[in-house]
Design goal:
The complex is a heterodimer of chains A (69) and B (454). Chain A has 69 residues and is an alpha+beta fold. In chain A, 23% of the residues lie in helices and 41% in strands. Chain A has a three-stranded antiparallel β-sheet, covered by helices on one side. Chain A has a two-stranded antiparallel ribbon with strand order 3-4. Chain A is elongated. By secondary structure, chain B is of the alpha+beta class. Chain B has three domains: 68 residues, IHF-like DNA-binding proteins (HU Protein, Chain A); 253 residues, no CATH class; 76 residues, Alpha-Beta Plaits, CATH 3.30.70. Classes of the chains: A alpha+beta (69), B alpha+beta (454). Strand 4 of chain A pairs antiparallel with strand 5 of chain B.
């Protein structure tokens, strides 16, 4: 497989999701950014942490079976 | 906006300059390979992007690479969780540490240990002795106030004689006995204060030295060379000790000799556990006192103020200390009457007094105005986090122009280098910061994080 292609693929998907665009690739799934608000997290030992807000990449696979065959 | 496969291909064509068909083919190939690998139970990693694999449930999963995750999360990169409540265990640990620390100074010299044991024995068995000593000590202090000069010279002799004795201790078992007991009282207060001070990063010392009444400074100076072990740690206690020391040394030594040797014998028999527990309780009470004082923000400001050597400070800044002088005297004067509360009396008044003196120096917290340099830690509402320092400065200035108290702090992050956090406001507590944040305009409110700046 072409290295340049992989590189370009990687960059394009990155750029698009950073722009908050959803990238949907048929046969694979959907990439998008999800924002998690800051929240308090209680640990078992009684410690309470304030977790910072976060933007995370989320990948949702396509419905299984659709593209398997 | 949604990028579907067609759009993606267009973008890829732009990016690579490849033919449309070639791109299509490559993309299909890529998808195929990901699916294949995943179905074989293998993970396929695209470097700098992420890893595709099948979960146990047979779903295709994707884990973004660190690079990608960081890039996506650029706004908040470098932010770490903030502890709001300590874990129970660590709270317990702290107590343990305090307990552990106590034996250390004791172990340093054997007389100290003796005096720890002596604490109980003395207070129970020799109540008359201290009473006879203390009234005189009181007198001496008033004298000291009036004619501190004279006092210096006269007291110089006594303690120095005493010092010699202390130094002899290791060689002369009987001298050891004498002073072991005389000292023990003093040591009780002495030991407790130095013990807790180290735990508090030396700040308490400074507070105390800063407050040491002027009239006692001379005595302190005399003391200093004598007790090298304690050094600056207990300048405050030292003048108390000194006065206690002087009297017994000069007057009731002979009388005490017999008593003390007797008391000493008993002391050794005393249940060590009981005495230890008593001392531990004592130490804890003192530590709590200091913590309270710190909570009031007292220590920090003092820390800054009392930077120069303690003795000079007390001399150079007489005015604020004048009231303290008087109060401190009162407290000390009470000692003779209430010896059980001895150590407590000496310490508890301090924080309250300091508060009065130092309050005006307390930094102001708030959301607006200009940033104040705050010694210690504060919370801020973090609105931006970025790597570019110049950009960060611009952001800060923008916020400042909007009337916010904008602060900018570097945060070292292992994976991202130095991140600059731009926040507004300086707050004493996280809840103050949160309530202030809830009043920010919508665009800031939606995207903020309370950060701890220290």
């Amino acid at each position: 497989m072409d290295k340049n292609f992989i590189k370009a693929f990687r960059e394009v998907v990155r750029e698009e999701i950073v722009k908050k665009n959803t990238v949907e690739i048929e046969g694979l799934g959907r990439f998008e950014i999800v924002h998690n608000k800051q929240h308090q997290k209680k640990m078992d030992d009684g410690q309470v942490l304030m977790m910072p807000p976060q933007d995370v990449v989320e990948f949702t696979p396509e419905k299984t079976g659709k593209n398997e065959d | 906006m949604k990028i579907d496969k067609q759009k993606l291909i267009d973008l890829l064509v732009d990016k690579t300059g490849m033919e449309l068909d070639a791109v299509k083919q490559q993309l299909d190939q890529l998808i195929e390979r990901i699916q294949e690998a995943a179905q074989k139970g293998k993970a396929l990693e695209i470097k700098g992007f992420g890893m595709f694999y099948f979960s146990k449930e047979g779903e295709l999963k994707f884990d973004p690479s660190d690079d990608l995750q960081t890039e996506v999360n650029f706004k908040y990169a470098g932010m770490d969780p903030v502890e709001i409540k300590k874990p129970r265990e660590s709270a317990d640990k702290q107590v343990e540490e305090e307990k552990e620390e106590k034996p250390e100074p004791d172990a340093e010299d054997s007389t100290a240990i003796d005096s720890v044991w002596g604490f109980d024995a003395e207070s129970e068995e020799e109540p008359e002795k201290p009473e006879s000593q203390k009234p005189e000590k009181k007198k001496e202090k008033t004298e000291a106030e009036d004619e501190s000069e004279e006092q210096v010279t006269s007291s110089k002799d006594e303690p120095s004689g005493k010092k010699e004795k202390e130094e002899e201790k290791p060689f002369d078992p009987f001298a050891d006995f004498d002073h072991g007991v005389i000292k023990s009282k003093e040591e009780i207060s002495k030991e407790e204060e130095p013990e807790k001070k180290p735990e508090k990063d030396k700040k308490p010392e400074k507070k105390k030295t800063g407050l040491t009444p002027q009239s006692f400074v001379d005595a302190d100076e005399l003391e200093e060379p004598e007790k090298k072990e304690d050094d600056l740690d207990d300048i405050f206690p030292s003048f108390v000790d000194e006065s206690k020391k002087k009297q017994p040394a000069a007057q009731s030594r002979a009388a005490q000799d017999s008593k003390q040797t007797a008391g000493k014998g008993e002391k050794k028999k005393k249940n060590p556990v009981q005495t230890l527990v008593t001392t531990i309780v004592f130490v804890l009470v003192l530590v709590v006192g200091v913590i309270v004082a710190i909570d009031f923000g007292v220590m920090d400001s003092i820390f800054g103020d009392a930077e120069p050597p303690p003795r000079e400070v007390t001399q150079a800044v007489p005015q604020p200390q004048a009231p303290v002088d008087a109060d401190a005297m009162e407290n000390l004067d009470q000692d003779p009457q209430d010896e059980a509360a001895d150590a407590a009396d000496q310490e508890q008044p301090e924080p309250t007094e300091i508060e009065e003196v130092e309050e005006p120096a307390d930094p102001e917290f708030g959301l607006h105005g200009s940033a104040v340099s705050i010694d210690g830690r504060y919370y801020s509402i973090i609105l931006h986090s970025m790597r570019n320092e110049n950009r960060a400065r611009e952001m800060r200035d923008e916020l400042q122009d909007e009337g916010y108290r904008a602060v900018m702090n570097p945060v070292e992050s292992e994976e991202h280098g130095t991140m600059w956090r731009i926040g507004v406001g300086q707050f004493e507590t996280i809840s103050q910061a949160q309530s202030a944040a809830s009043e920010l305009p919508q665009n800031y409110r939606d995207n903020h994080f309370i950060g701890l700046i220290q």
